[in-house]
Specification:
Blueprint: E1 2-7, H1 11-22, E2 27-31, H2 36-46, E3 49-50, H3 54-60, E4 63-66, H4 73-77, E5 87-90
Parallel strand pairs: 1-2, 1-4, 2-3, 4-5
């Protein structure tokens, strides 16, 4: 099963997780703990895993979708160590 991770756990990530779960998409989903309440809600409703931090999302997932506010991107994404061949998708406005 393909691992899909979300960095940023706001409204967009929540809608996507819900849609993927309802469609029974073949993904093992992990979310960042950035919005702890939203991450817990997604875990309880859809069984997604909650990462301890953003680096764990990068380490564990083949596909990573970044959905943070543009003004937060540098502080959230700088310092993360990506893997060769990893697919990073941006859903930032």
């Amino acid at each position: 099963m393909t691992t899909l991770g979300f960095i940023g756990t706001g409204n967009l990530a929540g809608f996507l997780v819900e849609g993927l779960s309802r469609a029974r998409a073949p993904y093992d989903i992990m979310v960042s703990p950035r919005n702890a309440a939203r991450a817990r809600d997604l875990n309880e409703r859809f069984g997604v895993r909650i990462a301890k931090d953003n680096q764990q999302v990068i380490k564990a997932c083949v596909l990573v979708l970044v959905s943070v506010l543009p003004q937060d991107a540098e502080s959230v994404l700088s310092g993360l160590n990506y893997r060769a061949g990893q697919t990073i998708l941006s859903a930032m406005a």
